[in-house]
Design a protein that fits this description.
386 residues, alpha/beta, Alkaline Phosphatase, subunit A, Alpha-Beta Plaits, 2 domains, seven-stranded mixed β-sheet, 11 helices, globular
Amino acid sequence: MENLLFHRVFLFSLSGLGAGAMPDAKLYHCSNANTLRSLFQTGKLRIAQLQRLGIGQIQGLSFLGGNNYSSSIIAKIAQRSEDKDRVTGLNELLGIISAKSKPVYTDGLPSELIGKIENAVQYKTIGNVQCSKLDALTEYGLQHCETKALILFTSSDGTLSIAGHMSVISPKHLNETAEIIRDIMHENHAVENIVSIPFAGKWPYYTIAPGGVTLSYDAYQPNLLDILSAQGFDVFSADAFASVNNRYVYQDSHCSLDDAMHFASDMSLKAFHGLCFVAFSAFEERYGLQHNADGFTQCLNRFDDWLATFIPNLQSNDLMIITSDGGCDPNNTFLNERTREYVPVILYGKRTAPANLGVRIGTCDIAATVASCLGAKYDLNGTSMI
């Protein structure tokens, strides 16, 4: 398959769809995590299309069953980056490795750093604890709306979040506040991500609103999308990355499963030369982090049903890649966070020959594969799987 080129590549990242704990998972309090097994154990998993594509033949996933893959390349891949948050996982899929472990403030930020942030953003803050998004809003939302102090909290995966109700601060202003904090949090305080979380509604039924941003420590490095765009390839992205000032940066879109599938279906009917990247966030955000195994299962079932309508649209010069940005086992209850897992990878096209590549190290191999299959110059991390 050397020099096998494609005209269109469809890259689908099913957020949180892990394939079993990585060897270092115990460091992240999830040594028994296996998202796909948790979905299988509901007894409601129906994924005929993924079975035909060979997901059950991937090492460690034989419990999923299914037929032998006829024209798929399959593998299980470990993340090389040291963190388990979604942005780190997506960055590595696009060729960027976060090799250096960032500081994690399990007991909140030190008081002198809080003072520096408050002086810079001209807002007082409340919270400064480690907790989940929903717990932070429920615990501090009323106080925030009464005092106008912004909610600040951390997580065990190296994320610092700043939240504000839309009646108190606009998403645009909240994002500008996050950018100021990102500038402050450098050197010894260079946390992995700064996240702005606009929210709406009334206590205790707050909902996270669209328009927030995630400012990754690695966001200023060009990724696969930037490289392809600079070389003149068409780049289309939904539910994760958006073009801002000629750079592709992560943005929280909270796209529904239906919206993401419709976007991909529409793109399959269009003529382009390049990459269509869809990061299906609904799996993780709406079900994995909510410990809703049944909902996660039904979400994957719906995606599988949709695949039956999408695959016929693939042309002879198309390649489809199905993978994930990491794990989010709904049966893992540690702080409502993601899990450190391998991810499944399926490459399918009318011209691909079946191959089982076993276990690989580095989801950045997927970025290298996309570049290689399009014939693009590529100088980021990873080795092509084709």
